[in-house]
Structure formats: C-alpha cells, structure tokens
Amino acid sequence: MDLPLLEDDLGRPALLDPHRVVPRGVTLPERAVLCFFPEVVAAVDPVRTVHLSSELGPWPVHVVEVDGAEVAVVQPGVGAPLSVIFFEELVALGVRAAVAVGGAGSLVPELTVGHAVVVGSALRDEGTSFHYLPAGRVVEADPAGIAALVAALGNVPHVVARTWTTDAVFRETRSRVERRVAEDCVVVDMEASALIAVARHRDVRLAHLLFAGDSLAGEEWEHRGWTRAADVRAALYGIACDAATIL
Description:
It is built from six helices and ten strands; from the N terminus they run βαβββαβββαβαβαβα. It is α/β, with parallel strands linked by helices. It holds the Pfam family PNP_UDP_1.
C-alpha cells in the first residue's frame, strides 16, 4: 500500500521553518525540561517567562534555576504533533539538550503506580516521527540521555525499557497490547518516538523519563489514581531537572 507516511522526501527543506514563528529577540538556555505534568509546571518559581504563540493562545516557557544553571521548562501539550511543535520551537530558541518527563500506561503488571521508566527505545506507532526519520518500527534513544537519567535517578527504582508510542489512546486493543508486550514494550505513551526523531533530526540531545500511571496489563483498563500522585510527579520533575544539568 502506497502510504503518504512512506514518501521519501526527508532530505528536502520544509516550507515553514520554526525560526520564522518563534518570538524575535528571545533566547532560551541550552537545557530544557518538557514536563507533561501541568500542575508541576504551574508551581515552578521562574526567573523569567517567555511565551510561544499558538492557536491555544500564548504558551508559557519558564526559565528556572537548577543548581545555579538556567533551565527552560514547558508543558508541551499532549500527543506527538503538539509536543513536537513546541520542542522544535525550543530548539529554534537555543535549546540543545532536553529531558522529557511524563506519564505512561503500564503494559506489564510489575510496573506499579509511580515506577520510573527510562526510555531506552520506542516503537513508532504514531505519524509524526516518519516526517523526521526514515520509516522503521523502532527508534533507539540517545545513549547520553539514558546515562544522564540513570545517574540522576541514583537509588530510585527504575527500569530502562521500550515504550510503545501511539496516537490513538482510545484504540489500544487487547490484541495490540499483547503484540507490543511481545516486542518488549513495558509502557505506552503518546510522544516518545516522535521526540526522539526530532532530536536526532535537529542534532540535539534528549532523554525521556516516564511515570508508570494507569494500567492496561489486566483484562480491563485501570486508572489507578495516577494523576493524583502529586508527590511522585513532582519528584520525577526534579529528577528530570537534575538530568538536564548533566546532559
């Protein structure tokens, strides 16, 4: 089947470059944290804040201090397309290394709520990454990003593993979950493979830390109260900030 996603024009320049839409005269620190926990981002104490433009309205990017270093912090929306737009704009404003931190669904029962997962690779079941990298089933994460997160986690229990990145949160069928587990995926998310692809395309460093949240490991979906685990979410954000300073 001749799918548009398989068209090979990756080497050609885009008609719209992110430099053309970011605010003029604004620069950001070289390091950033893409935090998918909105309540955590809302609670930061910024040194300054700049705003990106979008159809969602002005979108804040906070600059915070972490151990004397400045780090840009943004909540990059939900899903691969939107998070990639904001990631691209951060890179256009000077970011050269980023750590993403967010939630994921557990595919295996041993990952209880709050368990930390360092993305070692991602299965590409989304559309955005195919506009940045040649077609392929799995994309490997940046080894430097993995190392930075493992160092920042220290004694915090974690696994380095594969995630299944999908666009269709309401089409995660039992048979598809079983196939993904057979391919060594332990969690499912909506952004990882696309962010890895952008980082590789733009030659910037990236690490991705996931929080095991709801569960698809049983016969029925379980929420498990993962959005209310405020302390764990805040702690993982702090770990992501520490990793950003050494990435």
